[in-house]
Design a protein that fits this description.
- This is Epoxyqueuosine reductase.
- It catalyses: epoxyqueuosine(34) in tRNA + AH2 = queuosine(34) in tRNA + A + H2O.
- [4Fe-4S] cluster 1 binds at residues 197, 200, 203, 257.
- 35% of the residues lie in helices and 11% in strands.
- The chain is α+β, with helices and mostly antiparallel strands.
- Among the domains are: 10-90 and 106-183, no CATH class; 281-357, Alpha Horseshoe (Leucine-rich Repeat Variant).
- Helix 1 packs antiparallel against helix 5 and helix 12 (306-319) packs parallel to helix 14.
- The protein is elongated, with a radius of gyration of 22 Å.
């Protein structure tokens, strides 16, 4: 009879994990525990204030979001990874934001949808572990289940949650995606990351809508990323002028963060800009038909908001373009009779802004 394989040395396995992660394109890997009591209280308070807006899914699943072992029974450790996404060769953000006839798309969404890419790499990482030690208990995640990924990543030493509520790494900034493997392997824990925001409040001061209502507290209902992506209905009129030309997401708080001077461009071809979305003309985007939207944005994170919400956002940006511009007004009039009441209402608002209502 062959002897049973020896149990893997946890420290050696953790070192091998880091090597495998680097080979798969991850720029960081950390191992954390499952005690999220502090994060759970923060989430409870945030939800009680209604700061999640229409994101009802944030309140679902009870304690499973903050208690990994309840979501995946047997979980002892969470392996957190990061993958950089800052697109090499994309148009510089500030000149686009300062050009009102162009549309600004959050840099994470310029290329292909990250969810599938990160999950595929995580699965490959799990397969690599299984090849070394045999079957083990695990489940992979990338923004795909009730997971508090930023507190988990902080516990795993990948960075700290900044005042803008994004995760920051002192050696790599904040332009990265996160992913997790919940596992029953008793791996050695990494030291949690400490905070290094100090007295800086650049992100708070730059936010166009004042959504960062206190250090480390975001009111999503005022956040441009929420308004242009998650919010399904009309964008509140008082906030529309503040959106400027931001048509999908907002990066201002990260653009001014001094730690992002250490950010590195991604080596992932999938995250390179597609269809000129790094500096597109608003008029061109508004004229995309629903079929063109679906075809051109196939495989993009943007596609999930749908053509109607896309046009709603662009109509607001066109309303914020230089007043009375003939091409802008003509474009808005082409879409004034939209079959979508949501789009038609925002187009009417934009035309009024140009004195052409």
């Amino acid at each position: 009879m062959n002897p049973a394989p020896a149990a893997p040395d946890p420290t050696a396995l953790a070192a091998t994990l880091r090597t495998l992660a680097t080979e798969l394109g991850f720029t960081g890997l950390g191992i954390g525990g499952v005690d999220l009591a502090v994060a759970e209280q923060h989430l409870t308070d945030w939800l009680a204030r209604g700061y999640h807006g229409d994101m009802a899914w944030m309140a679902r699943h009870g304690a499973k979001r903050s208690r990994p072992a309840e979501l995946v029974p047997g979980t002892l450790r969470v392996i957190s990874v990061r993958m950089d996404y800052w697109p090499h060769g994309a148009a510089a953000p500030w000149p686009v934001l300062e050009s009102p006839t162009l549309g600004y798309v959050s840099r994470y969404a310029l290329g292909r949808d990250y969810h599938k890419r990160v999950r595929q790499r995580l699965q490959s990482l799990a397969d690599g572990i299984a090849a070394l030690i045999g079957p083990f208990g695990y489940r992979v995640f990338c923004d795909s289940a009730p997971v508090l990924e930023k507190p988990l990543a902080q516990q795993a030493g990948l960075g700290w949650i900044g005042k803008h509520t994004c995760l920051i790494d002192a050696r790599g900034g904040s332009w990265f995606f996160l992913g997790e493997i919940y596992t029953d392997l008793p791996l050695p824990l990494d030291a949690p990351a400490g905070g290094h925001c100090g007295t800086c409040r650049a992100c708070i001061d730059v936010c166009p809508t004042g959504a960062i209502v206190a250090p480390y507290v975001l009111d999503a209902r005022r956040c441009i990323s929420y308004l242009t992506i998650e919010h399904p209905g009309p964008i509140p009129e008082p906030l529309r002028p503040l959106l400027g030309n931001r048509i999908y997401g907002c990066d201002d708080c990260q653009l001014v963060c001094p730690w992002n001077k250490f950010a590195r461009p991604t080596g992932e071809a999938d995250f390179a800009p597609r269809h000129g979305l790094d500096a597109p003309r608003l008029i061109d985007l508004m004229d995309w038909t629903a079929d063109q939207f679906d075809t051109r944005l196939a495989g993009s994170a943007i596609r999930r908001i749908g053509h109607q919400r896309w046009q709603r956002n662009i109509a607001v940006a066109l309303g914020n373009a230089p007043a009375g511009d003939a091409d802008t007004v003509a474009c808005l009039r082409r879409h004034g009779d939209s079959a979508s009441p949501l789009v038609a209402e925002h187009v009417a608002w934009a035309l009024q802004r140009h004195g052409a209502g």
